[in-house]
Design a protein that fits this description.
Layout (H helix, E strand, L loop, with lengths): L8 E11 L14 H14 L9 E8 L5 E12 L2 H35 L1
């Protein structure tokens, strides 16, 4: 049976990082200027393929940490349709999962039948 699934979108992260002060510089606890942040974001946008730039997203989050410490996280990403290779890999992984699950359930059923037969 060669039933194909629909092509799905793939999330591609351009940057994903924790922020403890500076958005741009790692291990810098000073604030960035607005101009620095805009230039940084423009640079990230240049990494995104032109056909996906209008839909590129920024996700900002606040994360609680040890003993009430909080920090922010940022992710800049875009979504694109999966390639044929990615789709085949996803389908293979899904097929393998269900084959393993069927084998596991068959093993449980065999054990149950053996117990019922022995009872």
């Amino acid at each position: 049976m060669s039933e194909r699934t629909e092509r799905q979108n793939v999330k591609v992260s351009v940057v994903q990082k924790d922020i403890f002060g500076s958005l741009i510089a790692d291990n810098k606890y000073d604030d960035d200027t607005v101009v620095e942040v805009i230039e940084w974001l423009r640079g990230l946008l240049e990494v995104v393929p032109p056909e996906y730039r209008a839909s590129a997203r920024v996700d900002l989050d606040s994360v609680g940490g040890y003993e009430g410490e909080h920090h922010s996280e940022i992710e800049v990403y875009y979504e694109r349709p999966e390639t044929d290779e990615e789709m085949r890999a996803r389908e293979d992984k899904t097929r393998q999962y269900f084959e393993n699950e069927a084998a596991r359930l068959e093993g449980l059923a065999k054990q149950a039948r053996a117990r019922l037969g022995a009872a």
